[in-house]
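Intended use. Records such as the WD repeat-containing protein 31 entry shown here are meant for training and evaluating sequence-to-structure methods. They are not intended to support clinical decisions.
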Amino acid sequence: MGKLQSKFRKRSEIYRTTQVEKSETTFDSKVVQYEPAHKGSTNTVTNLSPELCVSGGSDQAVVVYDWKQGRMCQTFQGHNREVTKVVCYPGSTWIFSASRDKTVLMWDLNQGDEPIQEFCGHELVVNGLAISPEGRKLCTGSRDNWMCLWDIESAKCEQRQNVSRNLVTHVCWVPGSSSVVQTSEDKIIRVWDSRAWQVTNTFPAKQYIQTHCDVSPNGHYLLSSSNGFGGQGCEATVRPVWLWLFVGPKVCLGTLHLDGAGPLVCLAPTDSDNLLCASFNNGLHHIQLGNGLSMDQDSGASSAGAGELDVKVVACF
């Protein structure tokens, strides 16, 4: 499925479709503590390179952090309200940040600490942000019901469309295509054609608000997630982009409890063995995934049995 970012509440769960016993790990006191990336809650995190991540928080800052070395590389200040979403263009130093101040700012890690472009036009918080595969267009979505398509070079809004009750929660571009997928508080997932800027497909409304979506690198499969209500109904559904499908029963491989972290709002896989998790109370967590081999308790790792997934936090920042 490639790199998928999903929102979670009190726990982060990793599933597979084969029958495996559940392994449970608790937050370990030997976790390395680095300089915090943000003052306050961390709302979003993504990858800029194999070593660098980008995050946004309630402190209105966009932060570039070397998660392997545990050091802050750059802080961007330009928004006047909290940052809600960050995305990066693969293979470049471009960073885009959305905010409750209704704007999107573009940054370049190699061009100082001032924004190099500003995208203004939404009337409410911007929650959706996606870059076209060729890096020329930017799609934004907001709680104001508007989906907008921008030319990155000129910062001009080329297409706008308002859909009633479409309070956008997330946007992603289908790799190698002209299609954009977005989730909404009206529980409907919509597929847009970026050429005509029209909705070409919708999936039947789910029971709860859809908070996030992502598409596999081959463009065939869509993952969407919901935070449920009152601790119930949290789910992730995988389906073909053009056809409704439910995946069979899923079994939890491992559960990691982050006591005191508050809501866990974003995951960014860095490779097959590491995840970055953003939380409201304790910033960013570097989570390591193991093969479940028994390990010495003094190492601070869980002692999951063979075939189970060993999940542990190794650093916070």
